[in-house]
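User: Second chain of the day. Same drill as before.
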Amino acid sequence: MMNIICIGDIFGKPGRVAVATILPKLIEEHKIDFVLINGENAAGGKGITDKIAEELFKLPIDVITAGNHIFEHASLHPYFNTHPVLRPLNIIEHLPGKGWKVVKAKNGVRVGVVCIQGQIFMDSKGPKVASPFKAMEELLPTIKELADIILVDFHAEATSEKRTMGWYLDGKVTALVGTHTHIQTADEEIMPQGTAYITDMGMTGPHDSVIGLDKSVALKRFLTGERKGYRVATSGIHLEGVLISIDKKTGKSLSIKRIREFM
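Assistant: Same format as last time:
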């Protein structure tokens, strides 16, 4: 058996502080072999910079996945070639980076990580993307040859799209974890063919907020339509994600458990 931890969208400096503070304890407590985080909102709530990527990789993190904000900061682009930072696999435009990578865990197991982005309600959010289903269909034969286990971060808005992807990939990948909505869902399960699934892992950052945004700013947006003064909230900080136990011989998941750790 091996244990992995996947951490939901890191939001701004509060999220980075939470990871730095809580992750080492979780690794020791649960004997973690591999760490996957979504860094989509690590830089002030939008994207990730080169300096922040460097800061995060000083922690025991193996792979950083992202989503529609991955190209907010051009300084990150060189890191696509030198570090395990993934952008969505199914981006249509010719942009830097890769959507999948195989990385060896500390126990020697070859872990394939894939980042895909949904299409429903995502049209105006970042680069245009092709069907994530077709993208996975094309990738699976290759990544199965190279990896012992396969983890997929599905960065999507619609629960229906995420759930459908779960059924599509059941038995084909080790785990499918959802990101993007910043609200942790209570539907974690091992699907019939051995794939661990959760619609959304949640957010690591300030929960005394509206999905990370200062609540006074969010209230003004909804009450008046004014979209000025974007500001990251600062309180109610905690880490959210999932702990997954895997049979490393079969590549099937044995258990999945939600994590919600307060600072």
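The longest helix spans residues 12-30.

User: Great, on to the next one.
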